[in-house]
Amino acid sequence: MKVEGDKLKEILALIESIKDPEIGISIVKLRMIDSIEDNEDKITVNVKLTVPGCPLSSTIEKDIKAALKSQGYADVEVNFGFMTKEELEDIKNVIRKERISMPESIERYEKKKIKHIIAVYSAKGGVGKSTVVKLLSQTAKSLGYKTGILDCDISGPSIASLFNIKKQAYANESGKIMPNVNEGISIIGVDMLTNVEAIIWRGPLVSSAIKQMYNDTEWGDLDILLLDLPPGTSDAPITVFQSIPVDGVVVVTTPQELSNIVGKKTLVVAKSLNIPVIGVIENMSYFVCKDCGAVNYLGKSDEKIDLPILAKLPFFMDSNPTEESKSQLKVAIGRIINTKK
Ligand SMILES: Nc1ncnc2c1ncn2[C@@H]1O[C@H](COP(=O)(O)OP(=O)(O)OP(=O)(O)O)[C@@H](O)[C@H]1O
Ligand SMILES: [Mg+2]
How many domains does the chain have? Predict the structure, then answer.
């Protein structure tokens, strides 16, 4: 039963002094308490976080439980949801009123003049994400789409070396980063920015570097911007989903890894933010014997996952994709472009 009236006031008063650990303002003031339920003496507090997957949620949970238990509420449960974009705008006003600085984590960036922002993700490192980003960008370009890549891998960027880019990017007169244009594709990564230190190292955190690269780059009109994410073990993919207006996620796996993507926290967060997971590109799926042409699959690829397979790419014997791969990648780009949020 939903708690209302005086009892609601009483419980809110008990938790009013609990502050969001990052923002430093009361969780009640920030309207993070969505609802409170009382079912047979069990109190359930439903909290809306500003940041999905927020590592500090356990602190909030602990504080709420302690505050209520100290007043005799023995059985307390805390559930977490996320704020909508509109709700976040509201709390920004509360923060402004308190005259404290806006925390990085609740900043949301605009779509700019980019039609489709697609994050390429893998649960595991080294499965061929960056390679797939390169192939997808070249395919999109060959189909006439204005294409860009943002290398979101801060600790191990690899797009520049995949495209053999040696040039540094530069900032224009208004302080915007001008991406490197290679094969007609606009590319930016942290390794191209050692010349523009002042822009990029404003914040020491990986997340702020990604956000700044997205936001401070002059992308111009793009049909598609591919985000090469670092592997799924870090918080960087979640930061990307929270702050960049991503239209869809493409997952890269190898056949052996296919079953491991189900239930990955990153994908759960994407879905909770209404970002569609468009499908899977299975990389190093098979190899073709160069002597006899026989196709040899490298793992069982018929795992039951409820995501469409966008393409199956072979183990390339040289760095050039086969004709079959090129046509599969074209179909994949078609599906990516046609995904509606
Ligand atoms: N289909 C393929 N055939 C042959 N080699 C491949 C294929 N895909 C990727 N590779 C090779 O596998 C290695 C890892 O690929 P890549 O860097 O694209 O993976 P990644 O998922 O982006 O890695 P990280 O998680 O470190 O960013 C590279 O040496 C790349 O050349
Ligand atoms: Mg990579």
Answer: 2
Ligand 1 atom nearest 231 alpha carbon: 25
The whole-chain average pLDDT of the chain stands at 86
**Residue 153 CA, ligand 2 centroid: distance in Å:** 7
DSSP summary character for residue 195 = G
Instruction: Find out whether the beta carbon of 317 lies less than 6 Å from any atom of ligand 1.
Output: no
Tell me: do 215 and 249 sit in the same domain: yes
Say which residue the tokens 């900032």 belong to. Answer: 171
d(CA 2, CA 12): 13
Distance of alpha carbon 48 from the chain centroid: 19
Residue 185 pLDDT more than 80?
yes
CATH number at residue 88: 3.30.300.130
Phi, psi torsion values for 182, nearest 5 degrees: -135, 130
pTM score of the predicted model: 0.77
Contact 254, 314 (CB under 8 A): no
Single residue among 106, 140, 173 that ends a domain in this structure: 106
18 versus 317: the higher-pLDDT residue is: 18
Which of 106, 122, 147 is the last residue in one of the domains? 106
pLDDT above 50 for 282:
yes
Q: Which ligand is nearest to the CA of 151?
A: 2
Residues 309, 197 share a domain: yes
Mean pLDDT on 308-317: 91
For residues 231-255, give the mean pLDDT. Answer: 83
For 29-41, how does the pLDDT look when each residue is reduced to its tens digit (9 = 90+)?
999 999 999 998 8
Ligand 1 centroid to 129 CA: how many Å?
6
Are 26 and 50 within one domain?
A: yes
Domain assignment of residue 59, given as a range: 5-106
Shortest-distance Cα residue to atom 11 of ligand 1: 128
Q: For residue 232, what pLDDT is reported?
A: 66
Helix axes 206-216, 236-243, angle to 10 degrees: 40
Same structural domain for residues 122 and 102?
no
Q: Are residues 16 and 159 in the same domain?
A: no
